[in-house]
Fold this sequence. Notes:
Two copies of one chain form a homodimer. With 191 residues, the first copy, chain A, is of the alpha/beta class.
Amino acid sequence: MKLLKDKILRDGKVYPGGVLKVDNFLNHRIDIQLLDAIGEEFYRRLKDEKITMILTVEASGIAVACMTARHFNVPVLFAKKNKTSNLSNDVYSAQVDSYTHGTTYNIVVSRDYISSSDRILIIDDFLAKGNAIHGLISIANQAGATVVAAGAVIEKSFQGGGDSLRENGIRIETLASVRALTDDGNIVFDK
Amino acid sequence: MKLLKDKILRDGKVYPGGVLKVDNFLNHRIDIQLLDAIGEEFYRRLKDEKITMILTVEASGIAVACMTARHFNVPVLFAKKNKTSNLSNDVYSAQVDSYTHGTTYNIVVSRDYISSSDRILIIDDFLAKGNAIHGLISIANQAGATVVAAGAVIEKSFQGGGDSLRENGIRIETLASVRALTDDGNIVFDK
């Protein structure tokens, strides 16, 4: 998606350790016009898939999920992060290892809001190691729902999460795929 | 806002201690059509105020803020919650006491994304004690920005936060105002 790649090149900042900071438009300050175009692009790719719900995880997935859901005219369900292991019986949960923060947390979703008839589009801001998306797939599976696809705004393909999910038969849609972040601060896209 | 009040009466659940749970449509599962109508209503009330940015706090404010920002065609900035007191110099921060969780946390915003020329609409899902909105006002003040108004989807007027803010001269816009939650589970609106 050219609009997005141009924005990443203009406003993205590269930090040591494979960190790409895009908090100017994606996950702190949010460029609503860009996110609307991002939502439209996910819709263009997936509009025939009879999606009934968009599933994401707080906090930085929520904006993209909402701006995408508007095009599909479906509800959003966002998983909550829970640092305690003390979970009630009325939730589905999955454990997620955070690569960025070096921690582990649970994500939880109320059983009331997801069912076996749902056809789910998972949405997140980044796809790096794929841990959050793996957790969301696990939750959808626990509910017996169908995961139609997982979409991320930016894939960091050099971290392998996307290919691992594709090898497991998950349809992955990412709008900008970053192949490398160089030591001198350059951002190299896959295509 | 009748559409919203009807939804609260139909799907809201009352729990002991003044808790109104609306996670069926507002802060876990998100009814995108309703939030779009909510955004449109905030826009109708405030469209002449030359708002340049919507400021909210993660996580449950983000959806409302985004669906409102689309109508104003302005960016969203969401404050991050930070449990450590170890803050860098490049942020504005404020301390917030959480009534619901009995904890205190910092909310932080990058200094890069808010300036003295901004005319800010603060948005959140609930206005109860008003602590989160007080924190966001403090951040806007630190940046020298103008707070045009603070909007919340649901005000719990019996907790006093809204009136306290109004007495301080802050324009408050709430779309459903709950006067009481009764022991037998009824929801009573102010008007």
